[in-house]
Design goal:
- The structure holds two protein chains of two kinds.
- Chain A is built from eight helices and 21 strands.
- By secondary structure, chain A is an alpha+beta fold.
- Chain A has two domains: about 220 residues, P-loop containing nucleotide triphosphate hydrolases (Rossmann fold), CATH 3.40.50; about 120 residues, OB fold (Dihydrolipoamide Acetyltransferase, E2P) (Beta Barrel), CATH 2.40.50.140.
- In chain A, helix 2 crosses helix 3, helix 2 packs parallel to helix 4 and helix 3 packs across helix 4.
- Chain A starts with a strand and ends with a strand.
- The mean pLDDT of chain A is about 85.
- Chain B is mainly alpha-helical.
- Chain B has a single domain, classed as MetI-like (MetI-like fold, Orthogonal Bundle).
- The chains are: A alpha+beta, B mainly alpha.
- Chains A and B meet through strand 6 and helix 4 of A and helix 8 and helix 9 of B.
Chain lengths: ~350, ~300
Amino acid sequence: MPDLVLKNISKKYGNTQILRDINLQIEDGEFCMIVGPSGSGKTTLLNIIAGFIKPDSGEVIMDGNILNQLPPRDRSIGMVFQEYGLFSHMTVKRNISFGLEIKKCDKKDIDKRVIEITEKLKIRKLLDKKPGLLSGGEAQRVAIGRTLITDPLFYLFDEPLGNLDANLRLEMLAEIKRLHLNLKKTFVYVTHDQVQALSIASKVVIMKDGKVLQKGHPRDVYNNPGNLFVAEFFGAQSMNLINGTIVSEGRNSIFSGGGLKVELKGYPPPEEPEVVLGVKPEDVIILDKQAGNIKEDGVGKVSSFEFLGDSSLIYVNLEQEKPISIIAAPEIKLDSNEKVKIKFKENKIFLFSKKHGGRLYP
Amino acid sequence: MGKQIKRKWKLPIGTIMLLPTNVIMFFLIIIPTILVIWFSVINFQPNLGLNFWESRFIFLENYIKIFQDKEFIYALIRTVGISVVCLAIEFTIGLLIASILTGKIFGKVVLFPILIIPLMIPPIVVGNNFWLIFSANGPINQIISNILNTEFTVSWLSHPTFAMIPIMLSEIWHWYPLTFLILFSGLANVSISEIRAAQVLGANEWQIFRRIKLPKLKGIIAIALVIRMMEALKVFDTIHLLTRGGPGTNTETLSYYLFKEGFQYSRVSYISAGAWIILFVSLLGFSFALRTIFIKER
């Protein structure tokens, strides 16, 4: 099985450490998304996989072979670049056929493959155009078609949708997903847009400052963020984070901060009392006026109310700077400045250390 | 908002500012051009004692005579020959160094200025240096003598065919940095993702050069060619310093021929016709070279 293993990869540019001891295993046929803010080293990592950059230490292993000394052209990879990288002096047809032409394949076979691929990507009518005349979406399709022709084992994408507008981005994303389903090859996809990762990846790798913070299926990463950065970064709506302190009360602990008092049952207080509480917008409940006997975690005023169709996005002001965002059922109707009682779902609360960002609870 | 004040008469500031330059250019270019046309169709030789307005009108006789002049034809062939050989070698060297220097090379910062030093040296110094190097008991003969272990005393500069070698070498040495610089800037502008894309698709260094970089350099090569051709066609100083066109007329180029006929034999009308022929020939050459660029633009 051709899988991709990165072992203890480190890279330094001058005095800046770009990558610190990266270990990663990408299984055969996986759609792996490397996500992180700019400067996290994700593109450098991709360039190391492709072979454009040599790591200072560590190994790139593909299909059981160590590739460190192998130049990019011998690695059986296809790569799609953010700025397309189309050969501007060649027509679309020659761009796509380039990979076979330099291998001196039979001309008839090349033509057949080109037609096959352009049909698949719906760019048949562009064949005689020069890349300068293509729109962003068309150019990216041509770039994808160009990598398809050599039928590589691994496909690398370096922010391929970064230069496209929002609608086109969704369309192309679906296209890439479809491509992955058809080809059943390993895809490694670098992006800073975590929403993309959430929707189509089978594995996400979250990077920051040259380190892998968390990896796994997007569902697991979303439901189970390992630290403060992942909690804030990953997901369409970022997690509500509230600074506060924690004190013990019998066998339980009480978190207080930002106008909230949250009871954490059966949790002994940590050594450091300064913590950050995190809760996802969909895990905040607005208590009905009738439900009198449930104890609320806090009371606040509605600062804004957005009806989204299938749900509503509500912001509630408490004592803290940032309002708490809540995703609620569409039936709920609230006015601005209305006083509401909110409660967090008990098993959906996270506690992170304020000092190092690590997760403390659960 | 105030209304724009409309003046009946506007001061043509642009025209006024350009006027002095235009006046100077008129006297430096337009009048001499007209004079050269006139000179080329009369029989004007200052040493005959006649002023040019008194000289006889002979229409195309100068043009016919110059085409029958073997020295002129040989000078023309020689000039074209020197240009073609020098340009070919300069481009090969320039392209080679440029492609080496676009890669990762140790000591690039030092190497780069060293390589373009020849451009900064005045032609008279280049000529004198090559004259010293190739003189009968100069270093070249010394080195060859040492290698062959016998006395080697070819006088390069007065040899009927070998005299071309020092001339061409000095031209190449003096001007390869120009082609190198121009091609380097062209190569440096080829986008990195195109090169990487080609690498990933399996192209080796030669294929990338041949199929990606070189086609992109087409326009810039044409420009470099035109600039260098202009220099090569008027090659004069090195020849004057090295051989004075000799032995005999064996290393005479067009510019040297015209200089000799015009300023030493005072055949002003005759060389005016020659100058027009050269202008015409070089215009043809340049428009041909530049066509590649303009066709691309369309």
